[in-house]
Design goal:
The protein is of the alpha/beta class and 294 residues long. It has helices at 18-33, 46-50, 54-58, 71-76, 102-111, 118-127, 145-154, 167-182, 207-216, 219-222, 233-240, 255-263, 267-270, 277-289, and strands at residues 5-9, 36-40, 87-90, 93-96, 134-138, 156-161, 189-195. The two termini are 20 Å apart.
Length: 294
């Protein structure tokens, strides 16, 4: 059994597969360890809504009357017990849902005493190692107190990237404006940098190749690339010589991943035979271990 660990999934750009990657990694952690919690801290609430918890997102699931409750504010600002607002997704995997009015919570955190520490104090520390061995946080794609809380509460980050225009700025901004700035105040470990939704060849000048070269040829980035996405200098030479016989790197685009998203389920519970589940399992191993191991 690994030591309890929390991790934030974050990148300062939307549409990079952050929610899908965090949900499926949390699902694999639950499968491997019996139980896991995923926290939807993203202000758009995509995970919460896609999983079908619309009433919880609106704050209507917790009241006996027509009154709505901002459960995020109740926990982060007022220190209420987070377990009363946790819902079950599938066997072993629970969710602390997003709230439609995260903006008011974020604004209040700016003025709150120790406003960056509230998620750690009121949710992660009471539950991590007691109720859950692993907590996964799906972060907003913008700077702010919610992101600061996630970084401080977990001390660990996984950065997903997608081969589309802007991935360079998404990676650079996240490393410079999120990771580097956070490290001025507390420890923040990069557990993994993950290429997602790849679907093109890597033996031609495609966006997939450009992303993988950026990740595997930059030394301070390459050490954080999971084995399922890593390409060595010898691998690149073999690819260019037409002699590479390894599997295509990265989390590959699969219709079942999109279909699981539409069905409101983690991939494992929609298509347990999908070949990409092994990659999410490796991400779970990285969380358990606390680093990529070659």
């Amino acid at each position: 059994m690994s030591e309890p660990r929390a991790v934030a999934f974050g990148v300062l750009k939307g549409g990079f597969g952050k929610t899908t990657t965090s949900l499926n990694t949390a699902r694999e952690l639950a499968r491997r360890n019996g139980r896991a919690l995923v926290v939807d801290l993203d202000d758009n609430g995509h995970m919460t809504l896609n999983l079908g918890f619309d009433a919880a997102y609106r704050g209507e699931a917790w009241a006996d009357s027509d009154e709505t409750i901002n459960h995020a504010g109740e926990v982060l600002l007022d220190g209420q017990n987070p377990e009363q607002y946790i819902v079950n997704v599938v066997d072993g995997l629970d969710l602390f849902p997003a709230h439609v009015d995260y903006e008011s919570v974020q604004n209040a955190l700016k003025d709150a005493t120790m406003g960056t520490t509230r998620l750690a104090k009121n949710l992660v520390e009471p539950l991590l190692g007691e109720t859950y061995d692993h907590i996964v946080i799906d972060c907003p794609a913008n700077r702010g107190k919610l992101n600061d809380n996630a970084m401080y509460a977990t001390n660990n980050i996984i950065i997903p990237l997608r081969p589309e225009n802007g991935y360079e700025s998404g990676l650079t901004n996240t490393l410079q404006r999120l990771v580097k700035e956070a490290r001025e105040y507390f420890d923040l470990n990069i557990l993994a940098i993950v290429p997602t939704d790849l679907q093109e060849r890597v033996d031609h000048q495609t966006r997939d190749r450009a992303l993988l070269e950026e990740m595997t040829k930059r030394e301070h980035v390459a050490q954080h690339v999971p084995n399922f996405a890593y390409l060595s200098e010898d691998d690149w030479a073999a690819i260019d010589a037409g002699e590479y016989d390894g599997s295509l790197p990265g989390i590959r685009h699969r219709r079942s991943i999109d279909a699981a998203h539409s069905a409101g389920l983690p991939l494992r519970d929609y298509d347990p035979d999908c070949d990409q589940l092994a990659h999410y399992a490796e991400l779970a191993e990285i969380v358990e271990r606390g680093e990529v191991a070659r």
